[in-house]
Amino acid sequence: MKFLVALIFTVTLSLGGSFAALAQNETPSAEAQNAIININTATAVELQALTGIGSVKARSIVAHREKEPFSSVDDLTRVEGIGSATLERIRSKITVN
């Protein structure tokens, strides 16, 4: 029984560090949060640095631009879940160039 408890404890500690490292790699850096982001080339993680853009919307942006690149920042409203209010909130932080 002690062996089983020790084994579970060891496995839990081992995996805990892995999950923490994974979560850290998916968090946009402070530099990314202040940069102008090209919505035609940014990764989903980089797009999440924008206010109001979470992982689902970021993946939707990437999927949309793979079908048809954005020709202007206004085209972002063609992505489901991104309306004019979201666009105005992030307009100064995005580009298509």
Fourth-tier CATH superfamily name? Photosystem II 12 kDa extrinsic protein
Query: What's the overall average pLDDT, rounded?
Result: 83
* Count of helix runs: 5
Largest sheet: 2 strands, parallel
Series of H and E elements: HHEHHHE
Spatially, the strands of the biggest sheet line up as 1-2
Radius of gyration: 19 Å
- 3D shape: elongated
- Number of E strands: 2
- Quaternary structure: single chain
Portion in beta strands: under 5%
In the CATH scheme, what's the topology name? Answer: DNA polymerase, domain 1
**Number of discrete domains:** 1
Poorly predicted sequence stretches spanning 5 or more consecutive residues: none
Structural class based on helices, strands and sheet pairing: mainly alpha
CATH class: Mainly Alpha
- Percent of residues in helices comes to 40-55%
Can you tell me the CATH architecture? Orthogonal Bundle
User: Termini, distance in Å?
Assistant: 62 Å
Describe the structure.
This is Helix-hairpin-helix DNA-binding motif class 1 domain-containing protein. Residues 45-64, 74-93 form the Helix-hairpin-helix DNA-binding motif class domain. InterPro entries: Competence_ComEA_HhH, Endo/Exo/Phosphatase_dom_1, Hlx-hairpin-Hlx_DNA-bd_motif, RuvA_2-like. Pfam families: HHH_3. With 97 residues, the protein is mostly helical. The protein is built from 5 helices and 2 strands. A two-stranded parallel ribbon has the order 1-2.
